[in-house]
Amino acid sequence: MAGNGRMRLSTIVLGFVLVGSTTVLPAQQLTAAPVPIALQHAELADSATPGPEKRVTVVAAGLTNPRGFTFAPDGTLVLALAGREGPHAGVARIEGGCPVVITEGLPAYRIVFGALTGVANVAYLNGQLYALLSGGDTDRGGTPNGLYRLDDAGGAELVADISAFIREHPVAEKPRDYDTDGQPYAMLAMGDAFWVTEGNSNQVIRVGLDGTVARVADLSQGHQIPTGIAPAPDGGAYVAFFTSTPYAEGSAKVVAVAPDGSVTDVWTGLTLVTALAVGPDRTLYALEMATGHGQDPNAIAPGTGRVVRMTGPDTAEPVVTGLALPVAM
Predict the structure, then answer these.
(1) What is the pLDDT confidence band of residue 50, given thresholds at 50, 70 and 90?
(2) Would you state the torsion angle of the CA atoms of residues 79, 84, 85, 90, taken in this order, to the nearest 10 degrees?
(3) Residue 183 CA to chain centroid, in angstroms?
(4) What phi, psi does 54 have (nearest 5°)?
(5) Cα(122)–Cα(150) distance, rounded to whole angstroms?
(6) 20 to 30 Å CA-CA from 306: which of 134, 228, 268, 293?
(7) pTM for this structure?
(8) What is the CA 232 to chain-centroid distance, rounded?
(9) For residue 168, what is the enclosing H or E element?
(10) Which fold has domain 17-328?
(11) Domain ranges of the chain
């Protein structure tokens, strides 16, 4: 189903599931990868299956490469948009099923392996809206990737320069497709700062409202590509791994990152995880971008993404299936 019509995801626990091109799928309770270039232009599969007595509802359409999202204090849905290549990324709120611009003109560009990146995520902290920019290109004299404060007039003020931090503080193992600006993906409010997953150098960083950036955990061994992040009960965070090529089924996992930077496996046997959520009963949920391709990355296809519920350290129960390359929830 393309960008018209209305469909509502009423799974018990989850927030919104965001499909990477034109459609947003919601659920009732809230708890937000690098994606191969061939996967950038998919739409919601007609076969999306939320299970017995559950419905899926489209709440917004006509979006250009939506990424992460949050809710304003008044409950309004606010979206990060990667947009089109060039100064076409931005942030929008949804009113009556349609996007209304909050900020526009931010940079979007194609990163080293060809995927489009722009504004990666949005979040509120102390009532203020912030955007996580992943479309900067300082090698060409452009805007740096980082945390930006958005104002009511449509402006975006740089709070913390993530591009500079990545250049000045390299990880232990740089990937072959190293991006000197990094690829910030998702962020989670932690006290007076944000924890940010950075999926190219493979790390979790702490980004403060005072402009400071510090590494929480170096996850660069094996280039596992951290993506989704959600609060863990010990004061740290759960972090999802997307995994690198060939994106083998069952090779992704979720780890717990403690405030001291220690890392522990929590949930294994997953596939291409792009987002995490924690339910009111502390059950952990994962969003898998695609499944069913075995060891063949060329077999990754729309309509195979799903939301799964953790049932054990290496087991999962499907909650919603048939999603087309979802990237956030």
Answers:
(1) low
(2) -30
(3) 11
(4) -125, 150
(5) 10
(6) 134
(7) 0.85
(8) 17
(9) helix 162-168
(10) Neuraminidase (2.120.10)
(11) 17-328
